[in-house]
TrEMBL record:
Gene3D superfamilies: P-loop containing nucleotide triphosphate hydrolases. This is ABC transporter, ATP-binding protein. Residues 4-213, 314-500 form the ABC transporter domain. Pfam families: ABC_tran. The lineage of its organism: Bacteria, Bacillati, Bacillota, Bacilli, Lactobacillales. GO terms for molecular function: ATP binding; ATP hydrolysis activity. InterPro entries: AAA+_ATPase (IPR003593), ABC_transporter-like_ATP-bd (IPR003439), ABC_transporter-like_CS (IPR017871), ABCF_ATPase (IPR051309), P-loop_NTPase (IPR027417). Its EC number is 3.6.3.-. It is an enzyme of class 3 (hydrolase). Keywords: ATP-binding, Hydrolase, Nucleotide-binding.
Length: 500
């Protein structure tokens, strides 16, 4: 049994006020299949880089492992895949071929230039290289980005059958659920390690959050009571002080009433001293209670600008075929009625995105059959490729006819920090740019929402946000997504596209 130990690990980027990790201590058993989860920006990829020794830090990281990171850097993608794998893994040919067979990849990909492989093939090849060295500990960072549902299932089977451990970062909950037996969650104010898969972690977290929320509410009531008591005591002390001042100034004729002026002054001073001590003690108790409050993870509800169309059927396809050099898929018949959410499913390259492009009038190939979109329909999109989103957020909102405040509000609720609002879109991270594209779509008033892989670059909290929003708002949608749980929860019907 081998371990990876973090002892008082402290790390932060110079541009951030708060450290990502602050005196963190943790022990990981390397035979665990460990899922690493958390909101974007919390430090998942940073932790992998720290384990690799690629970032300077305070504290210690102790292990005796050779760590391999996925996705590996491929400097020259024009080289033969076999040569690239040899450089990356230094493994024997038969071992490489064995791993490819387990991943259901044809061995002839080894003798093709790497840049001619599909995104899914490249992912599988790099995963195979990761597991060739049987003594290495794999660090797997977002392996599902280029995998369709079939390829995801193949990789799930591959990882489930591995007897050795690994650390996996993925926002696909069903994927994580299927392959891990431990979860390490980077939460807002702590690291939480739990045994079991993501579903078990989620159940435990809900119970923990409910308990902490009730505890927080009780603490807040006690703090309010103490602060109210402190205020009342302070007001009473202040009134006694005013009495003393008034007596000194002769506003109260103590001699006529047979009272000793000096005794009254001394009594008032003692009362003030006692009351101030009480106020300080109560305030101290209130401050101590505040330190017990848990910094919980809150995910705000998003807003979606759903418009109602007077058309019952918004979209109809009859014998629809799309072509470039040849037909992308067999003829399709389908329709989308108001309130329905159609999931378009199929393997990569089957033409799913082309169907969405044809709906919004951006398909550049040949269209056969019929595709009818209701007249006057307002359509809002989330595109796979959104590199043309540029400029400041204010310029972007104006260009797209968005209510600026609503747009920023959705961005903030999606987890984009206010400090990013002054950054030009082209200078943002890919996750932030994806949230700009999504916030644009949510803010745009529309009868039909056309979304192409909306979950890419989003964390599991965003996934749940979108699911809850869609189930509540009930928009009319046609979408492509490879996340099985998302499809299961929000699709009202499914269109399976057969390649060729």
């Amino acid at each position: 049994m081998s371990t990876i130990e973090l002892k008082k690990l402290t790390f932060g980027y110079g541009s951030q006020e708060k450290n990502i990790f602050d005196k963190t201590t943790l022990t990981i058993q390397t035979e665990w299949k460990l899922g690493l989860i958390g909101r974007n920006g919390r430090g998942k990829t940073t932790l992998l880089k720290l384990l690799e020794g690629k970032l300077p830090h305070q504290g210690t990281i102790c292990h005796q492992q050779t760590l391999y990171y996925f996705p590996q850097t491929v400097p020259d993608k024009r080289r033969m895949t076999f040569e690239i794998l040899q450089d990356l893994s230094d493994g024997e040919t038969w071992k490489v071929e064995r791993e490819l067979r387990l991943l259901e990849v044809a061995e002839n990909v080894l003798w093709r230039p790497f840049d001619t492989l599909s995104g899914g093939e490249q992912t599988k090849v790099l995963l195979a290289g990761l597991f060739v060295d049987e003594k290495a500990y794999p660090l797997i960072d977002e392996p599902t980005n280029h995998l369709d549902m079939l390829a995801r299932q193949q990789v799930i089977t591959y990882l489930k059958n591995k007897t050795r451990g690994f650390m996996l970062v993925s926002h696909d909950r069903a994927f994580v659920d299927a392959v891990v037996n431990h979860i390490l969650s980077i939460e807002k104010s702590q690291l939480v390690l739990s045994k079991g898969n993501y579903s078990i972690y989620e159940e435990q977290k809900e119970r923990r959050d409910k308990f902490e929320q009730e505890k927080n509410q009780k603490l807040k009531r006690e703090i309010n009571r103490l602060e109210q008591s402190a205020t009342e005591k302070a007001e009473w002390s202040h009134s006694r002080e005013k009495d003393k001042v008034n007596r000194k100034r002769g506003f109260v004729d103590t001699e006529k009433r047979g009272l000793n002026k000096g005794a009254i002054g001394a009594d008032a001073a003692r009362a003030m001293k006692r009351s101030k001590a009480i106020v300080q003690r109560i305030q101290k108790q209130a401050n101590e209670k505040k330190t017990l409050l848990k910094d919980q993870e809150y995910v705000d509800e998003l807003k979606m600008n759903v418009q109602t169309s007077h058309h019952q059927t918004v979209l109809t396809a009859e014998a629809l075929q799309l072509e470039y050099d040849q037909s992308l898929f067999q003829p399709l018949d389908f329709q989308v009625n108001q309130g329905e959410r159609l999931a378009v499913c199929g393997v990569n390259g089957s033409g799913k995105s082309s169907i969405l492009k044809s709906v919004i009038g951006e398909f550049s190939g040949i269209t056969r059959g019929t595709l009818l979109v209701a007249n006057g329909l307002k359509i809002s999109t989330v595109r796979q490729n959104y590199e043309d989103n540029r400029g400041t957020l204010a310029e972007f909102a104006q260009k797209n006819g968005l209510v600026y405040e609503e747009f920023l509000n959705n961005l903030r609720k999606l987890g984009v920090e206010r400090s990013v609002f002054h950054t030009r879109i082209e200078d943002m991270s890919m996750g932030q740019r994806k949230r700009v594209e999504l916030a644009k779509s949510l803010t745009t008033p529309a009868h039909l929402f056309v979304w192409d892989e909306p979950l890419n670059y989003l964390d599991v909290f965003n996934h749940k946000q979108l699911e809850e929003l869609i189930l509540m708002a009930k928009p009319t949608m046609i979408f492509v997504e490879h996340d099985a749980r998302f499809i299961e929860r929000i699709a009202t019907k499914t269109l399976v596209v057969a390649k060729g």
